[in-house]
């Protein structure tokens, strides 16, 4: 019988966390059954998830203290009613509260997974306290990068870094084989490290001037609007 893993995510809107979970599930589908607890009402993309035989549970949205309490109460009820072999929480520092409940209910495998960059905290000691609690209630602590792992968990035997890789074969088209212009599609937001991406573009352009870049999304960092960009940056198109 497959082991049941409950993933706690915000919602299904085509974001990186959802994509990561589904890509992982496709590799493990023979051994594990992934199920998802999401915040708020049903989203259109949930049809695609259910087509993979993944059950989705809708919990209250986490808005303010009352919303958080309602969410945690609903999660407690769900974990009491269903028998999961593991809980895998993707809710940032909310993982402390969710995995604390899972621990109290005797769920042996509790995974805390953070996918975002380090935050700015109000108090210096706040980070240390939260890191301690994350390690206390999780049996495995995973970060998407070394800075993220260090910020959310610190160090320890249960702390791991797991990079969010993708199957690049899905994006390797005939255009690549025929030597046509290569297109990189991304999003200009702080967590996507646009400065690093621009440095990569610079090095690629030095090696091959046939590269072309299209950036899709809102320029949240004002990378393109606040500066006069030299080649190859001035060839960027923003949609």
Protein topology:
Blueprint lengths: L2 E6 L7 H13 L3 E8 L6 H5 L5 E4 L4 H18 L4 E4 L5 H10 L4 E6 L9 H14 L2 E4 L2 H8 L5 E3 L12 H4 L16 H14 L6 E2 L21 E2 L1
Parallel strand pairs: 1-2, 1-4, 2-3, 4-5, 5-6, 6-7, 8-9
Helix pairs in contact: 3-4, 4-5
Any key phrases for this structure?
single chain, 239 residues, alpha/beta, Rossmann fold, 2 domains, seven-stranded parallel sheet, two-stranded parallel ribbon, 9 strands
Tell me what portion of residues adopts beta-strand conformation: 15-25%
- Helical coverage, percent range: 25-40%
Mean pLDDT: 83
What is the global morphology? globular
For the termini, the CA-CA separation is 47 Å
Beta strands, count: 9
The total number of structural domains is 2
- The named CATH superfamily of the largest domain: Glycogen Phosphorylase B
Please give the CATH architecture of the largest domain.
3-Layer(aba) Sandwich
Instruction: Write down the Rg.
Output: 20 Å
SS content category: alpha/beta
Largest sheet report = 7 strands, parallel
The SSE string, one letter per element, is EHEHEHEHEHEHEHHEE
Biggest sheet: strand arrangement = 3-2-1-4-5-6-7
Number of helices: 8
Low-pLDDT residue intervals, each spanning 5 or more residues: 227-239
- CATH overall fold name of the largest domain: Rossmann fold
CATH class assignment of the largest domain:
Alpha Beta
């Amino acid at each position: 019988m497959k082991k049941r893993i409950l993933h706690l995510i915000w919602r299904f809107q085509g974001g990186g966390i959802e994509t990561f979970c589904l890509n992982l599930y496709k590799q493990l589908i023979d051994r594990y059954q992934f199920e998802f607890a999401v915040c708020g009402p049903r989203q259109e993309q949930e049809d695609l998830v259910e087509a993979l035989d993944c059950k989705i549970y809708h919990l209250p949205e986490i808005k303010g203290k009352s919303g958080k309490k309602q969410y945690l109460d609903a999660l407690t009820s769900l974990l009491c009613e269903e028998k999961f072999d593991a809980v895998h929480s993707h809710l940032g520092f909310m993982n402390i509260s969710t995995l604390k409940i899972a621990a109290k209910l005797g769920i042996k495998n509790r995974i805390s997974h953070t996918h975002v960059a380090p935050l700015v905290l109000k108090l210096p000691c706040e980070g240390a306290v939260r890191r301690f609690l994350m390690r206390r209630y999780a049996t495995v602590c995973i970060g998407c990068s070394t800075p993220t792992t260090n910020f959310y968990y610190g160090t320890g035997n249960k702390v791991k870094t797991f990079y969010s890789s993708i199957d690049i074969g899905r994006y390797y088209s005939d255009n690549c084989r025929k030597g046509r212009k290569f297109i990189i599609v991304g999003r200009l937001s702080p967590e996507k490290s646009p400065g690093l991406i621009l440095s990569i573009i610079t090095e690629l352009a030095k090696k091959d001037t046939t590269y072309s870049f299209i950036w899709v999304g809102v320029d949240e960092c004002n990378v393109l609007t606040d500066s006069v960009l030299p080649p190859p940056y001035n060839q960027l198109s923003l949609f």
